[in-house]
């Protein structure tokens, strides 16, 4: 199996891609360092049947919000989820799925996870601290009826995404994590363009390097990816984020790479020969078809 196919297999196994070199003609973006031009936040969405866990925030006059907070120096996104959940609600927990990514100016990104509790207890008013006054389970109907004294409306979209995810009876849940550990010194994209028309799924790789392209990040990542392929006469439909690669480094590099899943529009593509199209084996083909068929990718930059 070629290096690229090994990398795709590694992605399905919860590992990272082994090529972090930018495509020919692509320059790296500005170096990304912790709290200089990167600012990451995580939020934790937990359900208990039809109830959602919210915390009363001390810094916002006791208003209710999802457990959430800033990622610390050299902290992974998963560990930030677990720490914030414990600090703000007194529950121990694990993230199950990355629901969505929100973005703002200055390298501000929020990673919204749905997860489950593994221990701990519900924080009571007697345990109030400088961050939160208490935690409580609220019925979804009470959250959306307008009576809740909430801090910001953006949590409603996250909760709705979580409800939809649960209603699919796990159809959107991937067996493996979609946060992969790999270090980058800038924001970048790895477009995974698949052709679903043949007996086996085909993947586009660079015709010179033999690797999946790596390109500079843009706020509108869908346009960046479509423009990249259009330069070669290839039309793709950008579906979402298949995986996020991130791992903070001791030298303060704090970039990440979004693995963007795309579907080839063969009928309107004229530059097929500008890329190599390699066959995935039957197992990988089945996995990719299932991911696309069940929309098992992240809803990003909502």
TrEMBL record:
Highest taxon in the source lineage: Eukaryota
Nudix hydrolase domain sequence ranges: 37-160
Any GO molecular function: 8-oxo-GDP phosphatase activity
InterPro entries from the UniProt entry: NUDIX_hydrolase-like_dom_sf (IPR015797), NUDIX_hydrolase_dom (IPR000086)
Protein name: Nudix hydrolase domain-containing protein
Organism: Clytia hemisphaerica
Source species taxonomy: Eukaryota, Metazoa, Cnidaria, Hydrozoa, Hydroidolina
